[in-house]
Every structure is written in C-alpha cells, then in structure tokens.
Amino acid sequence: MLRRPRRNRQSSAIRAMVEETSLSVNDFIYPMFVMDGKNLTSEVSSMPGIYRYSIDKLLEEIAVIQDLGIRSIDLFPLLSEDKKDKIASESYRKGNFYLEAIHQIKSKFPEIAIMTDVALDPYSSDGHDGYVDENGNILNDETLHILAKMAVAQAEAGADIVGPSDMMDGRVGFIRQALDAKGFTNVSIMSYSAKYASAFYGPFRDALDSAPKFGDKKTYQMNPANSREALIEAELDFSEGADFLMVKPALAYLDIIKLLNDNFDIPIAAYNVSGEYAMIKAAAQNGWLDGTRTMVESLTSIKRAGAKIILTYFAKEYASLVK
Ligand code: PBG
Question: Which NCBIfam families does this one have (predicted)?
C-alpha cells in the first residue's frame, strides 16, 4: 500500500498539524436572556446552565464571561404578559428594560459587541414575529414599520449589530434605510437569512414565554425540506445590505451553511439553537453521551460546514474548557 491515511493520524502532534478546522472563542456569540426586576436569576428548565437575569445580575455575568474571553453577546428579553400587545409597542418604548440593559452593558463594557433581536414575538400578545390581523394573517409590510422602529431604538441604546429574526420579506433593506436615516450607518445587520420553521426552538420559547398563541410560523419561516429557497433569501438579504448571513438552526442544516458559504463572500453565521443545546445536555445528564466531547464535535462540525460565526449557548462552557 502506497497510500496509508493512518500515517497522518499517528500522534497527537501530527493530528494537530493536519487539523483543518479549529474553534476560537472569537467565533462565538453568546445568547443571553434579560428580564425586568432586581437581583433575579432563574434557570431555564429545559436549558440547564442557562439563566434569565435581571439587569444587575446580567452585568455581573457579563464580567464573568468577558474574563473567559467572550467578546460578543446576543440579548433577548422576557416580558410579562401585561406588557405585550398586538403591535409590540413595548419593543420601541424609550427606556424599557431591554433598551436599558443594552445601554448599561455598553457603558460598563464598551468592548463587548452587543447584538439584538429584531422580531415582534417576545412583545406580541399573539406570540408571532409579525403583526397579526383580525383574520389571523401575519401582515408583512405593516410589520416592517414596527421592526424598523425597534431596530432604531436598539441602535440608539447602543446595539452594535441588529439581528432581524422575523423572516418578513424586505426587512433588511427597510431596516438598513431606517438606521441610515437616523445616522446609524455603522450599526451592522446580521440577518437570519435562512431561518427554518423548526421544532428545535422549543426551549427558547419556554425561556421567553414566547410561543405563538395560535397556529405556527410556517407562513414566514422556511420549510425544512427546502435548500434552493435559502439561496433566494440569502440573495435578497445580501442585496438589501446585510453584513452577515445567518442559518438557523445549525446542526440539522449544515448543508445550508455550506451552500451559503460557497455562494456569498460575507461572513456566514449559524445559530446552534436552544433545542440543539437541550438535546446534548439531556443526554449528558443521563450519562448517555459525553457532554463535553459532544459539544466540541458539534461546534466543530458547524465551523467545518462553513460558519465563521456561531451563536451558541455553549459559548461559556467552551470558553471555560479552553481557558
Ligand atoms: C424569535 C427568535 C427565536 C429564536 C431566536 N429568535 C424563536 C422563534 O423563531 O420562534 C430561537 C433561538 C433558539 O431556539 O435558541 N424571533
């Protein structure tokens, strides 16, 4: 045999030398949940190790993760039911606790990159990402105005990157124009370009109490069976000015990550979502899988597929592991 691939696997030094994909804490964005109140921390029951924090506790936690080398976070709000309405008006009300959290993080940790979520669902009495009419239809163009107000309010509070996760048509261009009109030409857009109608978001909706009150999200989120459609979504977002294209979820959509990475020259991100985290945690807690190795293997596969950036609830655990 002239070709013996095992020769390149024979020692740790050689394996490391030929390793094609390596993870860095720089690749990660850590999703975090914030809630109103003081001195509050509550664990998300379906996501062991992940907590919702009031602003004071969130700031303490950011100091911890910054020490571990994490430099970027994505913030999501948990709202009480009485703050929700059909037009998600709380989302752009000046001084709401979410905007206040962004402001305080920016003043205390100016080096942390803050990404925000732009979609109606945590603020919507219907639990949908868009505006819902009397007949239960999600209205696209009406929603764009709300998204733009939300994005501008987040930029004013100090967001570095806004993340439209709503899947309305035309939202990236609409938000870009609204930001530019207010002088926020330096605020980036990370578009959830190929966001699928996935069962893997369950634990996130528990965390934020944001599940749809009726129906599902299939008229705006993509069909998991489709990949060519992801190219259309990505082309639109690219042409409308997105700075990053995201695929979500990650693990069941590695082909989509590769597809976008092969076709676009802006950074590709992937969201390793709540259900992907919960599956590994549950199996590890039962002793059915080695949690640490499964985490590293999963994150590596997402990077290998072509994601430069990974939004992952594992960011803190991974950063602690390599520290
Ligand atoms: C909401 C939003 C969702 C997630 C991020 N932004 C849920 C949804 O679309 O229902 C999911 C994240 C996760 O599961 O970790 N627009």
Answer: PRK09283.1
